[in-house]
Amino acid sequence: MNIVLLSGGSGKRLWPLSNDVRSKQFIKIFKTEDGEYESMVQRVYRQIKTVDADATVTIATSKTQVSAIHNQLGEDVGISVEPCRRDTFPAIALATAYLHDVQGLGLEESVVVCPVDPYVNDDYFEALKALGEQAAKGEANLVLMGIEPTYPSEKYGYIIPKALTGTEAQAGATDLTAGTVDPVDPLAGAESASTAVVSLVDTFKEKPDAETAKAYIAQGALWNGGVFAYKLKYVLDKAHELIDFTDYADLFDKYGTLTKISFDYAVVEKEPEIQVMRFAGEWKDLGTWNTLTEAMDEPTIGDAVLNGACDNVNVVNELNVPIVCMGLADVIVSASPEGILVSDREQSSYIKPIVDRIEQQIMFAEKSWGSFRVIDVGENSLTIKVTLNPGHRMNYHSHQRRDEIWNVISGEGSVIVDGMEQPVKAGDVVTMQAGCRHTVSAVTELKLIEVQLGEEISVYDKQKFELEA
Amino acid sequence: MNIVLLSGGSGKRLWPLSNDVRSKQFIKIFKTEDGEYESMVQRVYRQIKTVDADATVTIATSKTQVSAIHNQLGEDVGISVEPCRRDTFPAIALATAYLHDVQGLGLEESVVVCPVDPYVNDDYFEALKALGEQAAKGEANLVLMGIEPTYPSEKYGYIIPKALTGTEAQAGATDLTAGTVDPVDPLAGAESASTAVVSLVDTFKEKPDAETAKAYIAQGALWNGGVFAYKLKYVLDKAHELIDFTDYADLFDKYGTLTKISFDYAVVEKEPEIQVMRFAGEWKDLGTWNTLTEAMDEPTIGDAVLNGACDNVNVVNELNVPIVCMGLADVIVSASPEGILVSDREQSSYIKPIVDRIEQQIMFAEKSWGSFRVIDVGENSLTIKVTLNPGHRMNYHSHQRRDEIWNVISGEGSVIVDGMEQPVKAGDVVTMQAGCRHTVSAVTELKLIEVQLGEEISVYDKQKFELEA
To answer: B382 to chain A: nearest residue by CA?
Structure first.
C-alpha cells in the first residue's frame, strides 16, 4: 500500500513532553515487547511494516519535524516537507505531487492518507490496506474510514452512510462488529478487511452534542476517522483545478502563497460520490494527558515512586532524578527538561492556554544527527549536552556572536575547525572563536558538553557552509 | 547574650530540599522584607542580632555543615565543630568548653542553648536573653524555657511547674498571656521578659496522648522548648564528672570515643533545682512539609503556575523550569536538583522511609567557597556547575582517578595548576590530568562548568595539599 501519514504541528497539549519543537507523536511513551519505549510515530510505522512490509510510507510534515522523523524512523522513510503550514488540502496536494513526481507512482495508483497519531492495533492498518484496494477499484473517487462508535462522543465528526443493502448488512454483522476482529492475527484482519462493509456516504455531520450523537448512532452513523483513500489522479486533478502549478517542485516553491484550506472543505464536501468503509477495531485518539495515560501499560515511566496511598496516578518522568508521589488520587505527573506538570486527570485537558503563556527557551530537541539538551543557562553562557549518533555529523557552521567549547565526554569521532580535521575522543577539548567554521562527526556514539559564550546567544545566530572537499 | 545554636543532623523529612548534605535549616524558604529568601539559620541569626547586636553566637554542628554555615552566615560566626555525632550532652559539653577555652568566656558567664530551627518572632529571642540573665543570677543551676501550650499536642514533652506564688501568678497574668507581648517592639519584649514568670520545675513528662496532654495543661503544664540556660561552670563541672578530659582540645580529640547520651538524660533529669521561664509568643516547629508550608508567606516559591482550580497548594521549586499545577487540592509540590515530591499535605509526614530507600548521588551542595550542582551524569563522566564566591578559593587538591576540565563561564579569578598560577576569565579552559594539583580562586563571583572524566569518579578520590608559598 501507499500511505501518507499527516504529521501534525507542534502542540502543547502534552506539555512538558511536547513543546514548540517536539510534537506529541515523537514522545517515547509506549512500551514494546523488548522493554524499550517507542513513540506514536514509531509505533504506527512499525505496525504498517508488520501488516505490509512493502508499504511505501511518506510523512507529510513541516521542516521542523524532519530531524526528529529521521532520528526516530531512519533515513529510508519518505518525507513530503511542507515549507510552512497551510492546512490539509495543500499538504495532501503536495504529498500527492511528491508521490507522483518524486517517488514515481502512477496516476492510477491509490494512496491512503491517515493521521500519524491513532492509537490502534494492527487490524487498523489491515483496514487501511483494504481502503487503498477499494480506492484502486475506482467505484468512487474517495473512500473514507468510518469507525464504529463505542459511545456517543461529542469530540468527533460523524458520517451517515446510505442504507445498507441486505448482503452488506450481513457481512458487517458477521465480520466487523466490535471485538470480532482478532487484533493480533494479521490473517484474521486481512480476511475481515476483504469482506469489509462499504457503503456510499449519505451526509457528514459536525461534532454533535451527546443527545444528537445518540440519534446519529441509532441511524447507523460512524465516526469520521480522518482517513481518505483515492487514486493519485483524482487529487492531482483537484489540485490543478484550485491551484496554478506545474509539478511538485513548482507547488513546493509557491507553497507559502497558498490559501489555508482543509481537505474536507476543499474536496470531501464537494464530492458527490464517496464511499465509507466500516472499521470496528480499537481506535483511540491520544490528544490529551488523560487519554494518553490511559494507554500506558504501567502507571509510571521513568524514575518514580508511588506510595500505597496513591490511587489512579500516572507518572511520566524524562528527568534522571526521582519523582516521589504520596497520597494522590487521579493525578498525572510529568517532568521533562522543559518543566513539570502536576494535574488532576480531568483538568489536564485545559492545559493549552496555561502553557501557551509560558515563555521558555527550548530545553531539548531531537536532530537528524542525534539530540541536544540544555543543562545550564547562564547570563552570558549556555551549556548543552550533545549526543551524536554513530556515522552522523552536524552541519558545517559558524556563529557570529558566540564562542564555543566542546568537551568530549564519550565516544570517538572527528572535528573540522576552519577546514582542519582532527580525530577526537573522550577528554579532548576543542575551542572555537566566533566566526570560526566547525563541525563534528561521530564514529561511535559521541557525547559532548558544549559551552556557548557570548552576550547574544541565539539559535538564529548560525551560518551554514558546504564542507570543502 | 551568649547563645549556642544546636544545628541538627541531615535529614530527609523535607526531601528533595533537604538531603544527606543539606539539612532543613539551610533551605532558603522565608521571604524577607527586601524580597530575597533566607534559610531558617539565617532567619534565626538575623533575629538574634536584631534583639542583641552584641550577642555571641556559636553554632554547634558537625563537620559536614561548616561550609554551609560559613556560606550562609559569613566567617564571623563561631562554630563548635563536632568531629562526629554523639547526641546533645557531648555536643553541649564541647560547645561549652569551646566558649571557655577558645572564646575566653568566664566560668560565671551564662549561656543559652537553643535549637537552630524554631520558627518564631523576635520576642522569642528577647525571652532567650531573659533566660540567660536569669541563669546569671544563679538562683538555679539550670533555667529552661516553657512554651505556653496552644493545644494539647502529642508531639512535645511537657514541663510541670511547681505551684506559682501569688505575685508570680499575677505577673504572668499581666504580662505573659498569649498575645499581650508585642512581637515587633523589642522594648515591649524586653519589658515582658524582665517581669517574666519564673517557677521551679516540679516534674517532666514525655510526649503524652492528647487526653493526658489536656490534663497536664489544666495543671499549668508548659511545652518543653528544648532550651537550656546555665553558667559555663555548671556544665563544665558536669562534663568533668562524666568525661575524663583536660580542656577543649582534649575533649575534641576524644570526641569519637564518647558515649551517645542526651543532655536531658545526663543532666536535666538528675538536677534537683531547675527553673522554668514561661514564653507565650508564637513558636512553631517546622519539621515536616506540612508545617513548613504553613509558614510560607505566599503559596509558591520559584517558577510555578497554579490554575484557578487549585486549592491549598504549595509549590517550592528550586529548578529553573516551570511547575504547572492544575486542579489540585491540599497538595505540596517541591522540586530540586535531587528530585521531585508531589504529596498530599497529610501524607507528607510519612516521607522519610520512602526517600531513605532512594539511592542517589548528591546533586547539589553548598561549600565554604560557594556551591556546586551536578548538571550531567554520564557513564564515565560527571559535569558540574561550580560557583565560587568573590575572594574565596577551593582547597588545593588532586584526584588519582579522574581528569578534569574547567570551562570558565563568568567572572574573574585565578587558577593554580601544579604550582603555576595564571589569571582566568570567561571563555578560558583549564585541563587537569589525574594526579595534577589544582585550585581556583575568585576575584569576582566566578562560575565554571567542570567536566570530570574517569572510570571511577568519586567524591572520596581527593587529596588535599598546602599551597606552596
So the answer is: A409
Rounding to the nearest 10 degrees, give the CA dihedral for residues B174, B176, B178, B184.
110
CB contacts, 8 Å: A337 with chain B: 321
Query: Going along B237-326, which residue ranges are E strands?
Result: 274-279, 283-285, 300-301, 304-306, 311-317, 323-326
* Cα gap A172→A151, rounded to integer Å: 19
Residue A298: how many other CB atoms lie within 10 Å: 9
Residues from chain A contacting residue B355 (CB–CB below 8 Å)? 324
User: Which residue has 536584631 as its cell numbers?
Assistant: B50
Q: Cα–Cα distance between B154 and A305 in angstroms, integer?
A: 30
Question: A325-352 pLDDT, tens per residue?
Answer: 999 999 999 999 999 999 999 999 899 8
Residues 6+ apart with CB under 8 A from B151: none
What's the confidence (pLDDT) of residue A469? 57
ipTM: 0.81
Q: How far apart are CA A323 and CA B339, in angstroms?
A: 6
| Residue stretches of chain A with pLDDT short of 50 | 165-194
Q: Which residues of B touch A317 (CB under 8 A)?
A: 340
In angstroms, the CA A468 to CA B348 distance is: 61
Could you tell me how many CB contacts below 8 A there are between chain A and chain B?
A: 194
Q: Which of B302, B381, B292, B299 is nearest to B337 (CA)?
A: B302
Q: Please check whether residue B104 is in contact with residue B81, taking contact to mean a CB–CB distance below 8 angstroms.
A: no
DSSP annotation string for B47-71: HHHHH-TT-EEEEEEEGGGHHHHHH
User: Is A324 within 8 Å of B341 when comparing Cβ atoms?
Assistant: yes
The whole-angstrom distance between A28's CA and the closest CA on chain B is: 21
Whether the CB-CB separation of B361 and B370 falls below 8 Å is answered with no
- Closest residue of A to B323, CA-based? A340
Q: Which residues lie across from B332 on neighbouring strands?
A: B314, B343
Question: Read out DSSP for A37-75?
Answer: EEEHHHHHHHHHHHH-TT-EEEEEEEGGGHHHHHHHH-S
Determine the Cα–Cα distance for residues B63 and B67; give it in Å rounded to an integer. Answer: 8
Q: Is residue B16 reached through a cis peptide bond, with omega within 30 degrees of 0 on the bond before it? A: yes
Which site among A303, A451, A452 would you substitute to test the B interface, given the most B Cβ atoms closer than 10 Å to its Cβ?
A451
Mean pLDDT rounded to a whole number for chain B: 89
For residue B226, give the amino acid letter: G
Amino acid identity of B157?
A: G
CA-CA distance, B406 to A47, in Å (whole number)?
48
CA A289 to chain CA centroid, Å, is 16
Q: Chain A residue closest to B350 (CA)?
A: A326
CA A413 to CA A447: how far, in whole Å? 10
A341/B328 CB distance under 8 A: no
DSSP 8-class letter at B98 = I
Residue B182: what are its φ and ψ, rounded to 5°? Answer: -80, 110
Detail the DSSP E strand segments found in A63-169. 78-82, 110-115, 118-120, 142-147, 158-161
Please name the helix (run of DSSP H) or strand (run of DSSP E) that holds residue A130, with its range, or none: helix A122-137
Closest by CA position to A403, among listed A462, A451, A464: A451
State pLDDT tens for residues B14-61: 999 887 677 888 888 888 888 889 999 999 999 999 999 999 999 999
Q: Give the phi and the psi of residue A352 in degrees, each rounded to 5.
A: -55, -55
For B261-380, strand residue ranges (E) read: 274-279, 283-285, 300-301, 304-306, 311-317, 323-326, 329-336, 339-344, 364-367, 370-377
DSSP A100: I
User: Are A224 and A146 contacting, i.e. CB atoms less than 8 angstroms apart?
Assistant: yes
**Contact state of B335 with A333 under an 8 Å Cβ cutoff:** no
What is the rounded distance in angstroms from the CA atom of residue B399 to the CA atom of residue B377? 18
pTM as predicted: 0.81
Q: How many CA atoms lie within 13 A of A189 on its CB side?
A: 25
